[in-house]
From TrEMBL:
Gene3D superfamilies: Alpha-helical ferredoxin. The lineage of its organism: Bacteria, Pseudomonadati, Spirochaetota, Spirochaetia, Spirochaetales. Keywords: Iron, Iron-sulfur, Metal-binding. InterPro entries: 4Fe4S_Fe-S-bd, 4Fe4S_Fe_S_CS, Helical_ferredxn. It comes from Candidatus Treponema excrementipullorum. The keyword Iron applies. Residues 171-202, 225-255 form the 4Fe-4S ferredoxin-type domain. One of its GO terms (molecular function) is metal ion binding. This is 4Fe-4S dicluster domain-containing protein. It holds the Pfam family Fer4_8. Signal peptide: none annotated. Residues 276-304 are annotated as: Disordered.
Length: 304
């Protein structure tokens, strides 16, 4: 399937470049190995013929690159898998790129593989559906099936296992995972929802700018703050876990927030549309009525 789709993608790219509809193409560049794939901007038919690739290792979500690319002259062609279109919509909702400078083409996908294990990627096992929610045109072969409720719910199974742990077990789990973090910032840099012009963690006055964590507090703080920052805006694209060189399951933090938001405010899928507010930016006093709120726990001398 991927070979046929790749040829159709190449043909569409050369067609739109030749017509002057776009002056560059955002896609995937082949590397030394089948699984060695890099997002890339192509500017000629010759480059596309020699270097463009689309296979089961093209898991990279190209949406975030549009923030910088649409600041350049001309229009860019971007190819989007179904799951990528949610990030595309969410970025558009937040006015992070110029939609008039993008020609979006939806492409079919039957699942991506993990380059390390060569097995189907976890996020593809719980894929919400093959429907594109944003595009200017679709490549032949796209299956526009609606969201699969069962698979959408199955993605929370791992979260439920964490919730079933005791607080100390859960703490030890995350300490074990986050202790491997080397603060390379790959998760932040790739995340479509992490698109601040100036990140708080780059502030030289913070004391933690561009540095490896000095203790477990800093290891926890970076990822927990980032998870809070993208809450209700995360589309669950899984890019954070995909690029992590330490294989930390960072997507589980985000899914916990998604699960809680669904339970508190009703099912919500970030990036489903380009209008309206997210649950956490549309709060009214009657939405949630916590039965008890503590400033500190009773054991710590807290009060209601």
């Amino acid at each position: 399937m991927y070979e046929t789709v790749m040829e159709a993608i190449k043909a569409k790219s050369k067609e739109l470049l030749a017509a002057g509809t776009v002056n560059r193409v955002l896609g995937w560049q082949k590397g030394l190995f089948e699984s060695d794939i890099t997002p890339w901007v192509f500017t000629s038919s010759e480059e596309i013929d020699s270097d463009f690739i689309y296979n089961e290792y093209c898991g990279a979500n190209l949406s975030k690159a549009l923030i910088k690319e649409t600041r350049k002259e001309g229009k860019i062609l971007v190819f989007l898998k179904p799951c990528d279109t949610y990030s595309f919509n969410q970025l558009q909702k937040e006015h992070r790129f110029d939609r008039s400078k993008v020609h979006a083409v939806g492409i079919p996908c039957t699942g991506m593989k993990d380059p390390e294990t060569k097995e189907t990627a976890e996020r593809c096992l719980v894929c919400r559906g093959t429907k594109h929610v944003a595009y200017d045109e679709l490549i032949d072969g796209c299956d526009e099936s609606e969201l699969d409720p069962a698979r959408a719910q199955a993605r929370f199974d791992a979260v439920a296992k964490l919730e079933a742990m005791t607080p100390s077990e859960r703490y030890e789990f995350w300490r074990g995972e986050l202790s491997r973090c080397i603060r390379c910032n790959a998760c932040r840099n790739v995340c479509p929802a992490c698109s601040c012009e100036n990140c708080v963690f780059d502030n030289p006055k913070s004391g933690i700018a561009q540095k490896a964590a000095a203790d477990d507090f800093e290891e926890n703080m970076f990822h927990i703050i980032r998870a809070f920052h993208v809450a209700s805006r995360c589309t669950d694209c899984g890019e954070c876990s995909r690029v992590c060189p330490q294989r930390i399951p960072l997507h589980l933090l985000n899914r916990k927030f998604i699960k809680d938001i669904n339970e508190l405010y009703g099912d919500y899928q970030a990036g489903m549309e380009t209008e309206g507010r997210t649950p956490l930016t549309n709060f009214t006093p009657g939405d949630v009525e916590p039965s008890v709120v503590y400033e500190r726990s009773p054991e710590q001398g807290g009060r209601k």
